[in-house]
Amino acid sequence: MTNASGKPLLQLDRVSVSFGGLKALSNVSLTVNAGEIVAVIGPNGAGKTSLFNSITGFVPITTGSIQFQGAQIEGLSAHEIAALGVRRTFQNNGLAPTLSVLENVLAGLHTRISASPAAIVLGLPSARRAEKLAIARSRELISRMGLSSHENELASNLSGGQQRMVEILRAIAAEAPLLLLDEPAVGLSPPMRAELGSIVRELARARGIGVLLIEHAIELVMQTSDRIAVLSNGEKIADGSPDEIRSNQTVLEAYLGHG
Question: Residue 254: how many CB atoms within 10 A of its CB?
Fold first, then answer.
């Protein structure tokens, strides 16, 4: 599924990123379509985080171009790119520790509240309805991950895995057109991983959200992704369906083993 312009939701064309004399990415081309889940795998140092950082404006690209919804975004600030509808999670926790679980997830929904600022300040009925819908959506997501008993608990009091899940729920709640998940399975129990995969597939299939996923948990990658891109030393060495990646001898030898 492409966007209304007929182009992919996200398109990287021969993107390179250098830090001094070190090339973190070299001529990487990649697309993500609306409603598609694309995973990026590779060993530490392969360039996966540099890829995410270049898309989201945290590091400048050296050469190439990045388009989101048909418009060039390289050179924009991280804040400007996020405002366009690109949401991401980070390997290290980005929660507000003094807010509750519910408040943190609600923070992800602030851009989707339909009431005007004036209506919110004045407490008008439209604002109250929008707030009730936002709370209901947040509680639905919290419940699906088995965290309902913690919804009023401060984020700082949660375990590492629970904090990770709340951060992911906050990003998911916004239902932005493009969602970048950076190793979301780290610290999650197997049941949480399975439910996370289910939620991500629902966002893509039912809501048309494009998902770009960095993940070392190969079983989650294989079960969730439509397509997998493999990076090695900053270069893309493979791009295909899970079945194609499974049968790619170079990938098997380098990353997945022979089993």
Answer: 16
Pairwise CA distance, residues 85 & 88, whole Å: 10
pTM for this predicted structure: 0.82
Residue 233 falls in which region: left (phi positive, over 0), alpha (psi -120 to 50) or beta: left
**Distance between CA 17 and CA 49 in Å, rounded?**
11
221-253 residue pLDDT tens: 999 999 999 998 899 999 999 999 988 888 877
C-alpha distance from residue 7 to each of 2, 169, 205, 236 (Å): 5, 28, 18, 21
Per the CB < 8 A criterion, the answer to whether 238 and 231 are in contact is no
Spatial CB neighbours of 130, under 8 Å, sequence gap ≥ 6: 113, 114, 115
Domain boundaries of the chain, sorted by first residue: 97-159
